[in-house]
Amino acid sequence: MYPLKFRPILKSMVWGGEKIAPFKSISTDQHNIGESWELSGVKGNESVVANGEYAGRTITDLIKEFKDKLIGKSNYEKTGEQFPLLIKFIDAKQDLSIQVHPNDELAARRHNGSKGKTEMWYVVETDPGAHLMAGLKKSITPEEYVERVNNNTITDVLEDFSLQPGDVFFLPAGRIHSIGSGSFIAEIQQTSDITYRIYDFGRLGLDGKPRELHTELAKDAIDYKVYPDYKTSYQKDKNKENVLVDCNYFTTSLYDLDKEYDLDLKALDSFLIIICIEGGAVITDNEGHSETVRKGETVLIPASTEDVKVVPEGNVQFLTSYVK
């Protein structure tokens, strides 16, 4: 197999902005584009291949045919024909709702065996005043949580962060969060579309009606513990792998390259996702298949690939992610 590109799945959201289309160099008549699903195995939203001989086929079709050669033996044993990660770009012109996601156990029990949602954010671009909320800054009880939602004070107990490009946040299932206005973010998460919307600032949806809240469902999903820091610190070195998050669900790294770099994948029993966030590069696998990847593009490297050579076009920054 060869490096695979996919057609973006664009999602109009009441809080969406205007950055995604130009960031990805695409034209569209859609308005309020809040999300571009770059690579998805979510049922009903399976990504479709955009390049080469498999163009027009879904990621699910390819997993059925190639199995562990595409996603790795361990991944295939755990998730079968569903791709285990969901990759998005998110453009927040307004604050998103305050929300939380269930863990695997709760999601399986409530939602017919579904997976929970642990995720991470990498801040790609920001407008002046960009911010987000993540985690509790004050200990509250489940009862106080419900009271604060009802009296519109839930934001008073959430940590609020001013943002700069390159900021990273890890969000295990159960952590209350909200992407704030002015944020353009790359999101890497478990394959799950289960969200409990806690609070929506009283706004109306695209249909002109209030959006549904899941206050009671969220009550049992929230991690009420207060942690010392919710922002991820990391070392950023030029022309090296900079590991951002290493958890049971994904391992994500940042690369900032201005010279040729070899990604040795021989020991990796997994696919590798490359998400380009700045510049461009030519990537060539060990069988001689080449693809150009540029800012806003995402490429899937099959698990059968042993080596990828990255040749920057000047300078390139990209994220990689895989599942152990």
From TrEMBL:
The record, for InterPro entries, names: Carb_Metab_Reg_Kinase/Isom, Man6P_isomerase_Firm_short, MPI_cupin_dom, PMI_typeI_cat, RmlC-like_jellyroll, RmlC_Cupin_sf
Catalytic residues as annotated in Swiss-Prot or TrEMBL? 197
Where's the Mannose-6-phosphate isomerase cupin domain? 243-322
Respond yes or no to whether keyword Nuclease is given for this record. no
Arranged from A to Z, the UniProt key words for this protein are:
Isomerase, Metal-binding, Zinc
- Annotated positions binding Zn(2+): 101, 119, 177
Q: Name one GO molecular function term.
A: mannose-6-phosphate isomerase activity
Instruction: Indicate the segments forming the Phosphomannose isomerase type I catalytic domain, all copies.
Output: 7-112
- BP-aspect Gene Ontology terms: carbohydrate metabolic process
Name this polypeptide is given: Phosphohexomutase
Q: What is the lineage of its organism?
A: Bacteria, Pseudomonadati, Bacteroidota, Bacteroidia, Bacteroidales
